[in-house]
Amino acid sequence: MKRLLLAVSITAAAQTLDTATLHKPLANDWPTYSGDYSGKRYSKLTQITQANVKGLTLAWTTRVTAGPPAPQGGGFGGFRGFGGPTYETHVGGVGKNDFGGNANIRASVLVVDGTLYFSTPDNAWAVDARDGRVLWHYYWKTRGGTHIGNRGLGMWGKWLYMETPNNYLVSLDAATGKERWHKEIAPFERQYFSTMAPIVVGNHIIVGTGNDLDAPGFVQAHAPETGEVQWRSYTVPTKKGDPGLETWGTLEGAKLGAGNVWIPGAYDPETKLYIFGTGNPSPSYTSPPSRDGDNLYTCSLVALNVETGKMAWYYQLNPHDTHDWDSSETPILVDGEFKGRMRKMALHADRNGYFYVVDRTNGEHLLTSKFSDTVNWVKEINAKGQTIRDPKKDSTVGGTLVSPNNYGATNWPPAAYSPDTGLFYVPQSDTYAMYYLTDTDPRGSMGLGGKDEQAAGSLGTFLTAMDYQTGKIAWRHQYPEAGAWGGTNVGHALLSTAGKLLFGGDPGGNLVAYDPATGAILWHVHLGDVSGPAQTYMLDGRQYI
């Protein structure tokens, strides 16, 4: 399956990443999932501005093909077989299956020393950032698993790291694409699957995984040179005496309770805390006695000490979730004023339709506000600022009208923040669905079973800007089209820049530049399905989007 990678601009040496650059604000390169550790997706580049953005033109496009190498080995240029310079496909893996996989590019692209590195499930590529020429391709032969997506690569020095759907961490030579080693993250036999982009912090390669069925989610750190496990931290209690066990009906329910880790988090160098979101509890849609309680630490923001993996604090956003609304979206770390006091904060827009602000040094709750007008599942917001579900909005035999739908008011596509405006930007979807209970056994159903969902309408999809100090909407731009499902298109991930621009895709297949202060459209180009996040870099004196 072939997909396009495209670059626009205003008018192969060895690649090495100095990890010290990860601690600096985002500038010429894009060296980690969110660009820098803060999660803001805010670039200091200023060559492309509101004054000249209308001059953006196509710089290059390249087409890549996922899957095993072409017959007789190798391939040709971006088109593999249609002329141009050759490149080599390196094959690794432990399986016998040749999966093309889901080849939509849903990954953040790393940009280091003039080379782009990106991935799809079981595949990684290096591309020349100047002209789109493919330098190498790596293909992982899989045993199978869920190929729902891959969020990108991590980089340490001259090595790259990627997760595979069947739960291996693979290290590649960034210059050649050859495999150095692979290490198992989680047992494939338990139906784990892995999607997260590895995050590099110091000498730790941080990965996450889960299985959406009957296993505990966890975060794990590996040594960059050898791949050996340094520490592992489960997101649910797994044995007697574990903190949070009292929030589950039984130990068995807790240790099979999910809390999966699908998306990278953010890192605070000052506190040495890695802060990330966890997924929903399991079973997802039914509430057997084994799941009585709040179900810690699912649907939570969790902060771990990056050196030890020990939990420093947590804040549960959505206790006892019954709609599969993961809280896995990357939090955004911001220093700023809040109610007259300077605070170090983590901002998070949740799939459940609410926006949260917490103190990132200790998890203290600061603000909860609703950003989706149609949300109807909340009974109350308690003294801790947590959204408490109305049990009447659980799945029922006769059907229950719920907003948002399963996809959520937002989903994995990254939000952004601009220090120039002080606004938080998030793709939003106002949707309704009917939730039908299909398994009335009081013991519940495994994983995602036990319910059927039917779309019941949409009031639109939006790009929404919020004031984090009040939680109020500063402006909202309605996208011109919504999909049949009414969910948020996967390409709505956002980028803000010091050029006073906000970039993102829309459901109509456009890449759009907005005024981040007002939401006014300044420029757009039709590309087709914009499945990956907008990003920017500077090379040879020219800024690219």
List keywords for this structure.
single chain; 545 residues; mainly beta; 6-stranded mixed sheet; 5-stranded mixed sheet; 1 helix; 38 strands
**Whole-number radius of gyration?**
22 Å
Q: Helix count, per DSSP?
A: 1
Biggest sheet statistics: 6 strands, mixed
- Percent in helix: under 10%
Low-confidence parts: 73-85, 484-490
Helix/strand-derived category reads: mainly beta
Structure write-up:
This protein is 1% helix and 40% strand. It is built from one helix and 38 strands. A six-stranded mixed sheet has the order 4-5-9-8-7-6, with no helix packed on it. A five-stranded mixed sheet has the order 2-33-34-35-36, with no helix packed on it. Strands 28, 29, 30, 31 and 32 form a five-stranded antiparallel sheet that branches. A hairpin with a 5-residue loop joins strand 31 and strand 32. The chain is globular and about 60 Å long. The two termini are 24 Å apart.
In short:
With 545 residues, the protein is an all-beta fold. 1% of the residues lie in helices and 40% in strands.
